[in-house]
Amino acid sequence: MKKVLVARAVFPEVIERLGVVFEVTHNQDDAVWTQAQLIDKLQGREGVFVTGTEAIDAKLLDACPQLRAVCSMAVGYNNIDLAACTARRVLVSNAPDVLTETTADFGFALMMAAARRIAESEHFLRAGQWTRWGHDLFAGADVHGTTLGILGMGRIGQAIARRGAHGFGMAVVYHNRSRLDADTEAGLGARYVSKEQLLRDADHLILVLPYGPASHHAIGAAELALMKPTATLTNIARGGIVDDAALAEALHERRLAAAGLDVFEGEPALLPALLTLPNVVLTPHIASASLPTRRAMAELAADNLIAALGEGERAGAPPTALNPQVLRAG
Ligand code: DGY
After folding, report:
1. Which CATH architecture describes the domain 100-282?
2. Global pTM value
3. Which residue CA neighbors atom 4 of ligand 1 most closely?
4. What is d(CA 323, CA 325) in angstroms, rounded to the nearest whole number?
């Protein structure tokens, strides 16, 4: 039997399923491994089941020459050096689609929580500070009928656009590396604009773009300065896309009304200034975390691992491989 490693705790049924096909070493205690420990655990193993938190880079690949498949239960794969894997003919898969609607729900919820000051008012109430109704008590911004800006218009961005345009009567503007075709834009009710126009027009801006060198600090001081002081910013994409220090300053000076952040630069550590600001809603990278969706993500990673490394009838095309060409290469 081939040997695989499951690098983080995962649903027991997924371990059981993998156990039918492979000799599985797991980390159900969810111990925090250094990269050196991960390399050590990977010795003699052909496959690894990862999440969005394990760094799979050239150093690790060189230290684990027997590794043939890296299957992630996350859709974002900025933790995996895809080019280095492809060069060594290591198959990589991620987990798209299964989390799209759940993540879009969360993006909308976070944006609404920021706009309507839900977390801030809840803290006030829990602290025993609520003594009477007030005409402007935690009066925030409307969401319905306003302009929703989306930076990054992939599957999740489009699911957010549908909610905004069709559910909340919002005018939807977006910016993306490539423009959608006219029919898709019309179906979504979304209008393509330049990044600068997006920043100027949005009452509520949601970030849903992948992280990489090109998107590092895509939202920094200069971009924040273009936004309306009444606007909100929601990041459900990746830490590092926003310059958190610049954002904290803009929120503190009320040059931006509020923010909803699910991801952070250097998470799980947070910029201390963010913790003291009342006008930011903070959540611990849980946008895809509904139980059914997290199960589906884990099952999809297992499907990929089994297809990539399984034998006989189990072998096949991994359903969501990012570099399927490595299987075809002679
Ligand atoms: C993803 O799937 O990319 C989520 O952000 C969890 O890492």
Report:
1. 3-Layer(aba) Sandwich (3.40)
2. 0.96
3. 74
4. 5
